[in-house]
Amino acid sequence: MIIKRTRLYILGMLITHLGTALSVKSTIGAGFWSAFFVGASHSIGLTPGMWFALSQITLVFINAFLSNRQPVWLAFIPIIIESVFFDFWLTFAFNNVSLANVPLAFRIITFISALTIASFGISLYLYTNLPRSPVDQLFVTISERFRLSIGLSQSIIAATITLFAFLLGGPIGAGTAISVFLLGPFIQTWVNILSHSKHIKRIQYS
Fold first, then answer.
1. Which long-range contacts does 11-15 make (Cβ < 8 Å, 24+ apart)?
2. Phi/psi at 130 (nearest 5 deg)?
3. Crossing angle for the helix pair 174-194 and 150-167, nearest 10 degrees?
4. Which residues contact 115 (CB under 8 A, 6 or more apart)?
5. What pLDDT digit, counting tens, does each position of 139-181 carry?
């Protein structure tokens, strides 16, 4: 069954970054991490996917330092896969797509759809119990190290990365703030839905 779990794992990542790319293209404001990657790409160079990979690699060692543990080397697996998918959707598939001049209502619908798609992909990916990305671990590590709630840890990270994205000229907007507050509940909703799927459960624990 590991093959089925791996397929679900990769599918979840592919769907996640489809949503991520759509949120950037909506021009409503990308998620805070995506805004940072795109801003760094425009201001410094390299592709957004490369910045995704560099940031994630750095977080592997930051997480290890904060938790006083050895780096989790398996975290490099999702780093490689997700960086490729991020570049595929944003740099290749949607490279010539621009929604800047379309009606606001359509861009809002695109953004909400993007958030829904990304949260579904994340839920699929997490359900496989295969290696998670360093970003997913960062909130937990900071919470444990400084005895903060997960929510507060997430808010601190979100605010910090949003600031860097703004300084780098990333696509910050109302959608950025919305994603900070709504992505978590969206993911939880999909997790609740998937928890009732017998097919998903069989793959998860096989």
1. 11/121, 11/124, 12/121, 12/122, 12/123, 12/124, 12/125, 12/126, 12/127, 12/128, 13/78, 13/81, 13/82, 13/85, 13/121, 13/125, 14/85, 14/121, 15/117, 15/118, 15/120, 15/121, 15/124
2. -95, 170
3. 140
4. 19, 23, 178, 179, 182, 183, 186
5. 778 888 888 876 677 778 888 898 999 999 988 888 888 887 7
